[in-house]
Amino acid sequence: MARDTTALSRRDVLKASGAAGAAGLTGLAGCAGVGGGGDSEYPALGNYPVEGDEVVFGFNVPQSGSYSQEGADELRGYNLAVEHLNNGGGWVDNWDGLSGDGVLGKTVTAVEGDTATDPDTARQSASRMISRDNAIMITGGSSSGVAIAVQELCQEEKVQFQCCITHSNDTTGGSCVRYSFREMFNAYMTGQALAPVLAEEYGEDLNFYQLYADYSWGQTQQASMEQFFTEVGNWSQIESVPTPLGTSDYSSYLSDVPRDETDVLVLNHYGLDAANSLPQAIEAGLDQDMEIVVPLYNRLMAEAASDSIGGIFGTADWNWQLEDDASQSFVEFYREEHDRAPSYGARIAYTQTLQYAAAVERAETFYAPEVIRELEGHEYSGAGLGNETMRGCDHQAQRDVLVCQGVDPSEQTEDLLLNIVSQTSRDDLGYACDAGPAAECELGDYGDE
Amino acid sequence: MLLQSEIASILLNGLQQGAIYALLGIGLTIILGTMEFLNLAHGALYLVGAYTGLIVFQETALSNGLLYSSGITTLGFEGGFLAALFVVPIVGFGIGLLMERFVAEPFYDRPETDQLLVTFGLALIVEETVKNVIGGNTFQSIAPSTIFGVNVSQPISLPLVGLFPSWRLFIIGIAFLVIGLTYLVIERTDFGLVVQAGTHDSEMVRILGIPINRSYSLVFAVGAALAAFAGLIGASIQTVSPQIGTEQALVPAFLTIVVGGAGSVRGAIAGGLVLGVIISAMTQTYSQWAQIVLYLFVALMLIVKPEGLFGSAEVGE
Q1: Signal sequence span per UniProt (chain A) (predicted)?
Q2: Which of A172, A191, A212, B293 is the most buried (most CB within 10 A)?
Q3: pTM for this structure?
């Protein structure tokens, strides 16, 4: 947990300049009833200052729509984070800065919203959390379309957003904003991690055919697959076909896949969509003529398509079988509460909430520009994936990526659906700040310039 | 040869999709035609059919479920789907009777907006109840690996089309069997005569001394049974989750009767097939235009032939 010295010096400069003097009254209001917390020296911004002895986090997750099961597990992760932030336990006891007595002495309370897996609904829900509930931080989502829409709103409103499940390159690429951070990896990294494994497994100079969900995530996902399959394995793309998000019957799309020419069929679908497209591909016998790949796994898909996932390669954010201490302790306390292993959505939700809380503690204020500076360039290692850096130039975590393979149906249990094939080191992944998706990222302002 | 193969594949996929639309459309159209009752809970009946099928399928499976835990482990065949084929329409029929008596009847003489509100509310209640009782989980489709001793888990090779999932061939067959039987009942029986007469002029049927209220209940129940059956078919090829009633059934059912014509069974069959083939053709050729072309086609129908392919102009006026 290295401290960001740049941020410290900047705060000192701010203090010295007396810039916060103009906000003396609001600062006082922020202190009332909580006995300080060192949180009175900045001007009002977004929902800062936090009044009273409680601070509100907004958990904006899909409780309906294609990704609703993801949302349910995210909420479990969020609620555990709130429980541990207020009462101790879990990773709180091992993370620097966190003490288990709330955040800056204030008790954390949560409001929950339903994004319905729809960007407009998600924005409305987040907007209500900001204006009605005075949420100091919004987090959640299980769709890149949703994450991008909400993070734009949060940038406008100067309220921090912590991404949950969002895998599009655009989230921390062309659509990145200063007020949003992403712990999850992205489609570009999936391509980097998956292509060498597939080239090794299936050979080089093959032909591949892609179907992809026709929105931000699917589009960047298919572009990254095309780039890395071509570069790494010298594979050739036959065709790449968009399918609308929420398609339930893929039979017509699958009928069109040329069986004679295709060596690998790439299904860039997620959640419920993947739970339909993969079994239907196998039902049509495509697996007899070609290899099938689902680049991004999740538990909903693995469970709902469990008869079809045996041997199918893909990547995952995290897996409960990882043996490091942080992962195992997370599995343990999640299992105590919910009697089964957590999905990666629960881990991201839990981690992103703690990351924000720890940054607030380090900054000693809820004032967003200072919290953001604490997170930028922050290095951490207690989130189950080894050493990670929350990169300052695009707010994308630089971390390891797991390549997984579906477990044969005869060997599956409720928790064991995927086997970890490899953990690709972050040193072999990623891209410079002026390359890949980051080249298109302009973060925007802090709000205190 | 390539073109012929493409056309054959489009037709077969369209037939399968169209069969589900037709089942939904027939149910909706006889209720709308006979009682002039707009039933937005039709998708919820599809949902009930899918979940009933799922439960029956799971509880009668050989390796687990209710029968297994009761010691019955030697049925000797994979009976789950077969049992569901009978149980689901019966459950749908029963729910249809209850719906007609307690939801539809009090609203027959009320404005259409009231009917829309009450049935839409009912659909939401059904969806939320499923979420609360069974959970928001997504379940795998419930296609069996064998039925009547025939292996349906492997695709089979068809002339022109090439490999095609054999289970889908089976459900095309069973769906059209049910559609055909429904058509015969409506065209060739006294009950069907009353339904048809009621579609044209329910007041006249009443004046003739026919107990149309009892027929109303039956019509509603048959419509509900067909929607539930469509749900079972849907559950055998796609995942089952609480949203499917609204997302997969309601809009296609209404589009089907707009194309086919309200109140016409023949129209619902034709409408379902036309829509199925349009979607299949567009998906296979210009997939991004599929939805646009579908709605353009329906809009065009409304302009050029507002009564639909087989509808009578009076229904719904």
Answers
A1: none
A2: A172
A3: 0.84
